[in-house]
Amino acid sequence: MFLLTQIIGLFVIGVYNSNEIPYNMQPPKDVQPPKTCEFQGSYTDYIQCIFMAIPGTIIFSFIVAIGIFIILTRLNADSFIRAWFFIVTILAIALALNAFFVKANIIYASIIAILISVILAYFKIYRRNLIIHNLTELIIYPGIAVVLIPIMGIIGIVVLLLLISLYDIWAVWQSQFMQKLAKYQMDNIKIFTGFFIPYADKKQKQKINLIKEKYKEKSDSFIEKQLQKAKVKVNLAILGGGDIVFPIITAGVFYKAYQSVIPSIIIMLFATLGLLYLFVFAKKGKFYPAMPFLTIAMYLGMIISWILIAIKII
Known about the structure:
Structural class: mainly alpha
Strand order of the largest sheet: 1-2
Number of helices: 13
Largest sheet: 2 strands, antiparallel
Oligomer: single chain
């Protein structure tokens, strides 16, 4: 699912590389970070260039969004948070679908895309369908990425990946903020931003099937309550949305910088290998910050891309 999302992301990025982003989401053309920073004798100018390359708007927005979300959770504003997620989901899905429709030369592509996205977002946020949830996750993050890629440069994404990885380590292993956030989303808001795969052992599956068969005439909510009463234990395999979207953004920044799909594919494949390494060696029942593993893998992909560019293979 992660790899498929990256492939979809690469397609969407390619479409918007030659087409404007709809719904007034196209960043201003004067908002362009420096592509490179070369030292020319002045440390002050060099450091200033580095700071200009770091996407301060994204970092500031990230901090503000987290702050607002924490305040809303303290106020138990679950309905407002759900509505917030609903609007963001509509826009993200619409941006991705529009890319497919534009490529297929469908007239009124942006209008059709927004109408379909409203339906999908409704079933995702308010009807809690597991299949629709994961299917929409495949296109949500490409939609988010295309808005952020135009305001990012190579230096900026290199620094941002490092900062996000350090934050991820702190949030998962030190403060356990990510675990609390995931639990709050699933228990209170009844949604989760990322891939969400429940699984159970053979004994628990038999218990689930017996309860479903016994109450097959009842509603899903009633069956869910019976499962809770029976204390059925279902494990969860989850991957957060940030772990999915940042590799797409990174691949997109390299695509924009070098106007070649090869560096993007290399970074995408290395990110997938980094996640695969984590899944193979991670212990069940434990939370891990995925971004450090993804970042190291993507840095390796960047180095290989730069080597290929230097020897003019790309």
